[in-house]
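Task 17 of the worksheet. Students: predict the tertiary structure of the chain below and write it out as structure tokens. Keep your answer in the requested format; marks are given for formatting as well as content.
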Amino acid sequence: MKTWREEVLEKFIHIPYSLLLINDPDFLLNDEQILQQLRSTGYEVVHFHDSIFIRYLYETQFRERVEQDELRLLIYSNETEETCFPYDFLQQGYHIRLHIRDLFPKFSATVVRQLDKDDFDGLYAAHKIVSRV
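Model answer:
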């Protein structure tokens, strides 16, 4: 049976862009297993929390390799709005929104957000059972 982490990771498979911008207001990408898996599949993962720092980092370390498709860069933010990313990043990259309600559409997102991520494995299995009924 597929896990919730695998479902999140499936959103990044076969994306033909070198720059991915992820809005993750539910902190799903803050899971260490997901981050390790993304890195092992070739992504450089950067958490966006300061636009000046990200701009500096991008220009000095990533821009040339991203533009030449030598690097797959995933920048994620825990903000709710895509406008937190620089405009040129949004024009050049591919934007994805991650939400708990997409993982658990039959359960209350407000309640699920209050749970510990360690409980998501069992909850995801239960959700799949409930979804079949």
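Marker's comment: The chain has a mean pLDDT of 91. The two ends are 17 Å apart (CA to CA).
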